[in-house]
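Minimal example, chain plus magnesium ion.
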Amino acid sequence: MKLDNLTLQTPYLDLDPIFYHEVSPTGLKNPILVSYNPEAASLLGLNPELLSAGEFEALLNGSLTLNGSRPYAMCYAGHQFGHYVPRLGDGRAINLGWVNGWNLQLKGSGQTLYSRQGDGRAVLRSSIREYLMSEAMHALAIPTSRALAIISSDENVAREKWERGSIVLRLSPSWIRFGSFEYFFHTHRFRELESLADFLLRESFPHLLDQEEPYRKMFREIVKRTAELMAHWQAVGFNHGVMNTDNMSAAGLTIDYGPYAFLDTFESGYICNHTDHEGRYSYDNQPRIGYWNLSRLAHALSPLISADKLEMELDRYGEYFTGKLMDLLTQKLGLDTISDDDGDLLKSLFSVLENGRVDMTPFFRTLSRYNGDKAPLLALTLAPNQLNEWLIRYDERLKRNTSSSSERHEKMVRTNPKYVLKNYILQEAIDLAEKGDFTLVNTLLKIAQNPYDEHPSYERYAGPTPLHFKNLKLSCSS
Ligand code: AMP
Ligand code: MG
């Protein structure tokens, strides 16, 4: 299908006008296509090969309007670093409409009613990071928004220095945030709060529409999806960095990629966001913050669901989180079933990894081919004796496994990625892109989409992170 054949719907605009602000995108000077993503195109039913030259640029830059599109920004609030901010909203994102289950949204396409002091722009660096990481997370089977394409430009955007303005077209089954509910609750607009709950039911939980207590059941699912999302992040070593309630998807997806990072050496207290002085959003705090954010959402839903029921649903969070985490981590170890003592085995592994300053991703990948020869694993740690002792326990545990070692290896290399997009790798692509060379962005897209495969020319990205790039902190300004 070509772009002309795509027809968008805008069900969000059927809500009361207080929910949104209709606004047209403001284009950038001399837009140039950095990359497009054929996988995301096919989600929309598009065939990129049928597109004429310049069509992606025009779509992202707002000069090509899709059938049915009526651009708008969404209103929301949120708790930022624990403090309530009564009005946020899409300050630099503009929604184009919905098709095939996906809401299309431009990020960086100019000011809206909700821009406050902001310029409505995104810089190339942050757009590349969002574009590549959302695809990487999808390939790791972690619920996430997706991205269709990205443009750069000659537009100067002021951050700590001048940077190139850029726009990314991102896709999500839903852009409703915890903060969307908070906005209507804290302004005492309970009728609108109910309309939003009905909208979210239709958008992301249609199977609950004709059930009894649909709001309560929806909240239950949001609790479960959020808990499971946290388990995914912990298991793969992902630190989101800005888990404000306005960045929490009510559909349980990873959204709003900012100063995120994959752990290099395993460091449980790692904080990727350099403005997060207290470590509120550190790696090991993420599950607790997920719960705290859900408690804010519960409060916002209190006009629709009784307090005791909200509490009962929230109470399930720990069970959902631990269940999913154990499931994911025992799979990472190649275990067929979960035994009572596996929690302890895993706990001691993570302390061995931390004590030995072990890079998590290459460790699990190397473990995937472990056949009794400990040398390749011991080479990854500064505390080989501890790891050696742990491996003796692991050997014992493997004796209770029913699958053969070759079956285990086979499963583990499909569970433990060879490639994750660490910050230093992304930075190489960004440095080149800022000079106008987009080849590495496009190469990383392919690697991100196939993280379990071998990419022999990029073997260097699969090893431990070079020392001087380890566990850096990133700026929030994007
Ligand atoms: P974030 O931390 O990027 O999720 O953004 C928090 C809030 O600030 C959201 O309401 C954004 O829309 C808004 N915002 C961030 N950067 C800008 C910008 N450059 N221009 C306008 N609004 C922005
Ligand atoms: Mg945000």
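The CA atoms of residues 366 and 377 lie 7 Å apart. The chain has a mean pLDDT of 97.
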